[in-house]
Amino acid sequence: MQFEHKEALEALESTLSEKNDVVTIHEQTSQQLAALQKKLEEREQRVEILQAELDHLNQALSSDLRRKDEEVCEQAAALAEKAELVKELQSQLAEAEALHASSSQQLQQQLKEKVETLERLEEELAQYRSEASSNDVEFHKTKAELSALLHKWQEVEETNRTLQEERDSLKLAGEDLQGQLDAARKQLASTIDEKTSAIDELRNQLESAKSSLQHERETSNYKISDLSKDLDREVGEKRTMQVRLEAQDEKIGDMKALLAVCQSQLESRTAEVQKLEARAQQRDKEVEDLRSQLMTLESERASAQSRMQAAEEDADAQKALVTSLKEQVLDLKQKLAKAEGLRRRLHNELQELKGNIRVFARVRPSSERSVVGVDEELGTVMVPHNGQSNGFRFDRVFPAMSSQEDVFSEVSQFVQSALDGYNVSLFAYGQTGSGKTHTMFGSREDQGIIPRSMGQILGGVEGMRESGWEYQLEASFLEIYQEHVRDLLCAEEEREGKKYTITLGENGRHDVSDLIYRRVRTMEDVEEMMAEAERNKSIAKTDMNERSSRSHTVFSMRITGRKAGVGGQQQALHGTLHLVDLAGSERLAKSHATGERLKETQAINKSLSALSDVFVALSKKSPHVPYRNSKLTFLLQPCLSGDGKALLIANCSPIETSSHETLCTLRFASMVSSCELGKVSSRGGGGGGGGE
Ligand code: ADP
Ligand code: MG
Questions:
Q1: Is there a binding annotation on residue 437?
Q2: pLDDT per residue as tens digits for the range 192-215
Q3: pTM above 0.90?
Q4: Domains located in the chain, CATH noted
Q5: Kinesin motor domain: from which residue to which, for each copy (predicted)?
Q6: Which residue has the CA at smallest separation from atom 6 of ligand 1?
Q7: 544: pLDDT strictly greater than 50
């Protein structure tokens, strides 16, 4: 934009320099006009001299005429002759005058035309002046110069007119002279002859004067033509100037157009600038707003910072509090651990006080008349048989209306002992149909001891985790039939080659080789195991009817608890819980089988007999307990000796037809009830009593 303005300025400057050139040309023209004026003045002086000479000549002629009046009269006759000559001369003069008049007229015409041209030029100039107001000053100057030139021309014309007047006066003088000549003609007629020579001389003089006058006139005409040429040139120059002016005007027009474009651009730019200014104002406002927001934010930040500082201080205080609380918690944990150990010891002492082998009796409900009397408070069961009433006392007795929950509330102490690191076994004893399976497994709606124990263990493990104990639970499910171990978690086709030998294992436990142990973390795991065992049992059922009554079902759980103790020492608990659904006890008494069947029955019953033998030995405090006589007793040996704990639930049928079997069951249970486990501390590695 600026560049364009600069270009326009440069163009204007060049125009101005051109105008200056025109001015110098005008000045030169003025000088030339001045020279012409000087020449005209000289010519006027010459005309004056000529006039003086003419005056002198007239005076001389007058005197001569006066002198010659007489001679004229005398020469009148001669003059008459000469008159013709004069007439002729006069006609020649008239011709010359006419010629001069015509040439003068032509000149005047030309002058008039020039003046008209000048006037037109003037008009055009006036137009240009109005159009190009910026060039007014130069125009005025030019106009003034032109008007001066015109004025000079008018002066030249005036001079010319004066010359013409002079010529007219000369003519008049000539006419006067003619008159005088006419008057004197008569006088001179006589003297004409005499004077002819004088007249001839005079004529010669006149002729020469005329010729000189003619010459002067011609010179004047030349000068006029020169002046005319000058004027033409001037006009040409004017035209050139005009052309230049036009060109300049064009340039000016172009420049004006350019200026208009520039103006429009400037306007658009101005509008843009205004827009930008408006936007800038908007931005300024926004910036102002943002600044105020920033200030607000900064003040907020400052307050937030102060709050944060306060919060940090608070946090420090809280940290200190947390540290002290942690210390307290640690202290409490230690106390809790001690308390937990104490609880375990006390619990165990209580269990020992209650007896490591305990016996409960449970009578199942029946639609038939019940002959078994149960006194819950006294813990007695009365069974009439052969007209005799047989009474028994146990640690707990459960009448028919007792729920699974009632039973488990007493059983749960044993489960707790297993969690505390003891080897615990629970037996359901009794004739077929007395409710053993119901008591141990129950149904989905009315869960028995096994699922309830699992729930208690899983809950206990969760609770102990808070005290830093991590537990590992592994479960197995087996069946002992005719002294053969059958893994219920192993499918029939996968049992090939598996021995299931029972050996004395680590941590006071007995291991079964090849037996599958499943990790238990949730109740779903337990349910899945049960379902799997059920599936494997059903396959077996097809070829072995009533087998479940003639075999022992053992659900076992290994409970291993570990806790990082003070000084990197690790505490460990190794408990075992065996939940046993025993084979029907009636076979011991009611089997009247012989031959092969007897052999089978004897084999089936061997483990129950072995169990009975173990309890008999224990009750008699026999130095030898025959654990190895059966797989079941050998497997359960850790629970039936030392710190082990055993619970036998004697299930009874209340109906009269079962009273003998009920009596047998209760006698067996009574015998077990009198047993005590010898305190044998042979469980290195921490089992029994807390594992410390
Ligand atoms: P067992 O396993 O000793 O052969 P079951 O547990 O199979 O005997 O019980 C025989 C029947 O008696 C089953 O139908 C069982 O549901 C039922 N029964 C046993 N005990 C109870 C009880 N306490 N309450 C309700 N029903 C019982
Ligand atoms: Mg059963």
A1: yes
A2: 567 567 657 766 776 776 677 677
A3: no
A4: 357-674 (3.40.850.10)
A5: 356-675
A6: 435
A7: no
